[in-house]
Amino acid sequence: VEREALDEIRAHVFATRTAAVAEGITAVAPPAIILLAMPPREIFLFGLIHGKGMLVVGALFGLLWEIGLMDRIGSETFTEGRAGRGVVRQFMLALFDDAAWPVWQVLIAIVALVLVLTLFRVLSACWTLVTYYNFTLTRSGDDLRCEYGLLTRVASTIPLHRIQEVVIREGPWHRWSKRTSIAVQTAGATAGQEAPARRAWLAPLVHNAEVPRLLETVIADAPADPAWHPGLPRGARREVVGAPFVVVPGS
Question: Is there a contact between 211 and 166 (Cβ–Cβ < 8 Å)?
Fold first, then answer.
């Protein structure tokens, strides 16, 4: 359909769901309120933090394998008389024998590995920037609407009454950058039976100061400053120590 027709259909659906239509009165869609608009810098930072670069890594390795470059790299590295084979042999001799450690060669390999992982992380961030470009979260009545994408525009609607779970993710890189990722899990219903729950991004990356405002939008009685309760001090030890007592009798 054309874009104008799509906007008309969306406006009609929102109007019929959020406004009581009296006889002879035209339904008017409630105005959309922008809750979050992520600039390219924040999306790129989200790609660096999230680090979902295995798709890029897999595609790159698949391309190198198809053109035969992986076989060439392996033969150049591990063939008899090559420098790479000598480094591997010297490392194994130092590990299991009294030979000297190839310190410089190991340092060069570590630096090369760090550079490769950094390159993969940057490629992942670039892919994330293309995927979630111009991520915008708006609210229209009782629905949340997400729009994003540079090459392929994606628009999804999240009904507030379908939200079952709010997931707040804050890893080490999140804490370092003072950011938080928020996702919601929704459940639908089709033909009288429940559909599988699905998770969608409410805010891929947002500053910590904006978290209470977004939570108030999703959860009516959300606390302004939620209290986090740590696990029991001996909880981890119980999980580790209790497992053998369950496995051993069964074996």
Answer: no
pTM: 0.69
Token pair 């394998």 is at which residue?
65
Which is more confidently placed, 73 or 247?
73
Q: What is the pLDDT of residue 164?
A: 86
Instruction: Kindly indicate the confidence band of residue 114, based on its pLDDT and cuts at 50, 70 and 90.
Output: confident
- Give the span between the Cα atoms of 173 and 48, in whole angstroms: 9
Bridge partners of 143, per DSSP, are: 140, 159
Alpha-carbon 87 to chain mean position: 38
At residue 191, what are phi and psi to the nearest 5 degrees? 55, 45
Question: Nearest 5 degrees, angle CA 12-CA 18-CA 22?
Answer: 80
Q: Of 107, 134, 117, 179, whose CA–CA distance to 34 is shortest?
A: 134
**What string of DSSP letters covers 182-199?**
EEEEE--EETTEEPPPEE
Place of tokens 């379908």: 162
Q: For tokens 């030979």, what's the residue? A: 99
Residue 189, strand partner residues? 194
Contact 189, 123 (CB under 8 A): no
Q: CB of 148 within 8 A of CB of 154?
A: yes
CA atoms of 118 and 152, how far apart (whole Å):
27
Share of the chain above pLDDT 70, in %: 57
The answer to whether residues 155 and 210 touch, using CB atoms and an 8 Å cutoff, is no
- For residue 45, give the H/E element and its range: helix 40-50
Question: 40-66 burial by CB neighbour count: b if 16+ within 10 A, else e?
Answer: eebbbbbbbbbbebeebeeeeeeeeee
